[in-house]
Amino acid sequence: MAVIRPDNVRQARILRLLRDDGPRSRAELGDAVELSRSRLAVELERLDHLGLVETAGLAASRGGRRSSIVQIARQTRFLGIDIGATSIDIAVTDGELRVLSHVAEPLDTRQGPEVVIGIALQLVGKLRADDVSPGFVGAAAGVPGPVRFREGVPVSPPLMPGWNHFPVRETFAAELGCPVLVDNDVNIMALGEKHAGIAKSVDDFLFVKIGTGIGCGIVVGGEVYRGISGSAGDIGHIRVDDNGPICTCGNAGCLEAFFGGAALARDAVAAARAGASEELARLLARSGTLTAADVAAASTAGDPVAVGMIRDGGRRVGQVLAGLVSFFNPGLIVIGGGVAGIGHALLAEIRGAVYSRSLPLATGNMPIVLSELGDRAGVIGAARLSSDHVFSAR
Ligand SMILES: [Zn+2]
Predict the structure, then answer these.
(1) CA of 247 to the centre of ligand 1 (A)
(2) Distance from the alpha carbon of residue 92 to the mean position of ligand 1, in angstroms
(3) From 81, 90, 112, 121, which residue has the greatest number of CB atoms within 10 Å?
């Protein structure tokens, strides 16, 4: 496997700076990374030799000799893979993590790792066919379950039967021929928000994904906090009611059992069948199934049952978040994932619950907002995770 990484921390710092801020003149770069002109020249020569940076013309004069512009090599490619419980998103980015191409398809992770990874690799093949670049310098994949980060294997993921201890990272790495990292999907989405989303200028925040399941990415000092074994932020399995419904994890009354996408669909179908909601019954008759999006549509149409489901769910999520706010004191909470598509009705409930249950000092300057990256958060975050790894000293 061709592994291209910088030799030392100075080179790593140069690469991260060029990734985050774009092309810079040599003079500016030297100032930013605090290297002498000769030291910088040595490090850049090495990075150029590795094929990671290149020169792109001359900068405007600052007085004296004009300085050349340095940028991440245009051919640099990262691959971001975001496997959700019911969909997959894959994107190829350049070295500044701009999305060059992106595919998304519905997919059921319960088909097992061989099938799902096979589909992922097929989609990668399609994207690669359209690209001029020779290959990826790195890749990362997010999966919707707990991951032992160091080994890149899922551990007893409730939404992914058959994936327990499957060597996801090794399998992808063998096929892609580049370094691969595997993480929980919520963590990569949080990184995406940090890199290109609404959390760009915030170093301490929570990203809450409400998809089929519910999880929380914890960003501390600009880095994802994963805990000792990788399960930090698994808030979907916090118990909110002793007498609640049975959860996919086997316990009862988990937050996710009340209000993930799967729980919403279950409750919506039950309401439609029981004759409680004409609107949901109509939508069920039309497509034979109901999703969180149908509940959103019914709610927008004024259906009281759908409105009630969103209200109750938002309140329960808010109740858990209020606890997290007291504990963590974040600067921002970003809500994303498929169910977040319900939008402002849900956001209003969550805000109401959090603001009324937290101390003013914690919430005085803490916005709760919807993700603006949508389904791109995961793939951009995966590319960011991979680039943090590749752009670090070996
Ligand atoms: Zn649970």
Answers:
(1) 5
(2) 34
(3) 81
What is the CA(234)–ligand 1 centre distance, in A?
9
CA of 252 to the centre of ligand 1 (A): 7
Token readout for 14 is 């140069």
Partnered with residue 139 across adjacent β-strands are 79, 180
Question: Is residue 369 a contact partner of residue 333, using CB atoms and an 8 Å limit?
Answer: yes
Contact between 218 and 224 under an 8 Å Cβ cutoff? The reply is yes
pLDDT by residue, tens only, the chain of 394 residues: 567 899 999 999 999 999 999 999 999 999 999 999 999 999 999 999 999 999 988 877 767 777 899 999 999 999 999 999 889 999 999 999 999 999 999 999 999 999 999 999 999 999 998 887 878 999 999 999 999 999 999 999 988 999 999 999 999 999 999 999 999 999 999 999 999 999 999 999 999 999 888 999 999 999 999 999 889 999 999 999 999 999 988 999 999 999 988 899 999 999 999 999 999 999 999 999 999 889 989 998 999 999 999 999 999 999 999 999 999 999 999 999 888 778 888 999 999 999 998 888 888 889 999 999 988 999 999 999 999 999 998 7
Helices (H) and strands (E) counted in the chain, each on its own, are 14, 15
Q: Phi/psi of residue 219, each to 5°?
A: -110, 120
The rounded Å distance from CA 144 to ligand 1 centre is: 14
Q: For residue 18, give both structure tokens.
A: 């060029």
249 C-alpha to center of ligand 1: Å? 4
Cα(223)–Cα(234) distance, integer angstroms: 17
Measure 213 CA to ligand 1 centroid, in angstroms. Answer: 9
- Please tell me the distance from the alpha carbon of residue 150 to that of residue 148, in angstroms, as a whole number: 6
Structure tokens at 63: 């007085």
Distance 200 CA to ligand 1 centre (A): 31
Distance 237 CA to ligand 1 centre (A): 4
Q: Distance between CA 336 and CA 199 in Å, rounded? A: 12
